[in-house]
Amino acid sequence: MLLLLLLQVLASCLWLGRSEVVTSFESSCPQFFFRETPPNEALEPESPAWICQHYQNQYFFATLYDRKRRIPVYSAYVYQPASGKRPKTWMVEPQLIGPTYPKSMEREYTLLKYSKVSLEEISNSQAILQDYKNLTGLNRGHLNPSSHHSNTTSRTATFTLTNIVPQNEKLNGGAWNNYEQQMMITRTKGCNTTYVVVGAVPGNSYIAKGRVNIPSHIWSGVCCEVDTNHRKAWAVIAENDKNEVQVLTLGELENELTQLYGRDQVSLFDSSCPR
Ligand SMILES: *[C@@H]1O[C@H](CO)[C@@H](O)[C@H](O)[C@H]1NC(C)=O
Ligand SMILES: *[C@@H]1O[C@H](CO)[C@@H](O)[C@H](O)[C@H]1NC(C)=O
Ligand SMILES: *[C@@H]1O[C@H](CO)[C@@H](O)[C@H](O)[C@H]1NC(C)=O
């Protein structure tokens, strides 16, 4: 009897220690959101997974993942750019396979080699590398880009496929890259802390035999704290079939997203960010 009880306690400890896919960002990784306030539920898909992105014993950003379309809804992070090399690796999320899998992102190869999991099991729960092979005119677009982070570990953590969408190749290397690099540097002058939420609006077509959705739009909302009493905000949106980025106010982006998602009024940040 005692043994049974002990086993139960042990089992629940293991369970608590390993299962992740959190129930809310507020309870597990609020630090990636301005005033610890994630976007409202107007963006939530039918089968959401809240992921506090974990790598090498640390959380680096947060992603709301759409399990059905196998793309992120958005990734949220604090902007801390630095120059440095672009990591060369791709990872998946064991925690999406099931609650007994570890919470840290992992390379497909390592996961296949060291845990009793098949590629099919991984692919049932999320996009895998194979899905992004042989694309024409599209490539792997980061929502949270590696260049917005300060060191090798934080940069590498952005290379999880749960942070990736099929993005128009020209846009990814052109106008969107310009937003990520020049525009962000210029516009964040004087910002003490800069919070970013980058997302993708689901489209009507798919890659990989219907497995992974091709977004119709990619967007980003930025809220910057200049000091305790001053904030500024702005936003961008791009259609995923044009090499063009439109700059707008945070309020304008939220209204456009409200139309595009077709549900409640979208709110990306706490109300103290100027619209
Ligand atoms: C990708 O294309 C190559 C050559 O065009 C082909 O041999 C291979 O089977 C394709 N792979 C997939 C996953 O479609
Ligand atoms: C990398 O950056 C993260 C986030 O800013 C920080 O917490 C971590 O300590 C840094 N790691 C190293 C090795 O500098
Ligand atoms: C800038 O941010 C840091 C960390 O959040 C904070 O300690 C500091 O007081 C802020 N500075 C200003 C001028 O608001």
UniProtKB/TrEMBL annotation:
Pfam hit, one: Endonuclease_NS
Biological source species: Mesitornis unicolor
Signal listed as a keyword: yes
Domain of life: Eukaryota
Listed InterPro entries: DNA/RNA_non-sp_Endonuclease_sf (IPR044929), Endo_G_ENPP1-like_dom (IPR001604), ENDOD1 (IPR039015), ENPP1-3/EXOG-like_nuc-like (IPR020821), His-Me_finger_sf (IPR044925)
Domain ENPP1-3/EXOG-like endonuclease/phosphodiesterase: 58-268
Residue ranges constituting the DNA/RNA non-specific endonuclease/pyrophosphatase/phosphodiesterase domain according to the UniProt record: 57-268
Residues spanning the signal sequence: 1-19
Record keywords, A-Z: Endonuclease, Hydrolase, Nuclease, Signal
MF term (GO), any: hydrolase activity
Record-given protein name: Endonuclease domain-containing 1 protein
